[in-house]
Write the structure tokens for this entry.
Amino acid sequence: MFQLLRNALKTIHSDKHWWHAIGIGGLCSLTVFGYPIAAGLIPEHMENTRKGFASPLPPFIDWSTRWLLGLFAALIDFLYYLMPLMVAVLVFFCASLLMLSQGSTEAQTILVTTFLGGMGSWWLVMFITGVSAVGRLIYVDDSGFERSLTGFPLREALRKGARGYYFKARIASLPLYIAPLVCALLLPPALDLGGWAGWIGGIVVTWLFFSALLYAHVATMLIYHAVDQDLAWSDYPRPQLGE
């Protein structure tokens, strides 16, 4: 299983300047407007991988096209991660107003616990199913975003016969997220330095976090691409557009 991970890392590091693309992508991710530029690296690299050019990583040349590619790719995450959060926050806000009017402290505690537990569980399930990665596979495979912004990626991730393949890819990709997690844990101590040191440390750690996350996403998609090829030759190929 972890041969998939080794192959993905070998592919990335066969490009001697891989850290240029990752570092620039992490820098772009520091702003909301620049995040799609970094996110666009993933579908562009996947398209090259499908054509047999997995290395080197795509250079930052056509920024406008990459921004559009990244915007649509980011919408997949928005659909499955942020939109449920927005709905849950709305429900939580309305329920909180009702609890405040009744003055029930115990009910408010239960409501907060339910909200945090529910959202945490939802995000964990979405991460385990790898719905974002599956959505990006569909996005690149269809050469369009229509089907990837529906419930199809989730149904595909849970489809009988296919979910075992996707779960294997998710397990193989888990070590990739250790570095972003470490960077996230280092951010509070960096900010606690205070003054200019705190600002500089916070920015550097945040840049390292986004760079490590982009690296993890690129390697993860290489893993999912390999699994997707195995799935295509199995008895459970992914239904194509129009089927």
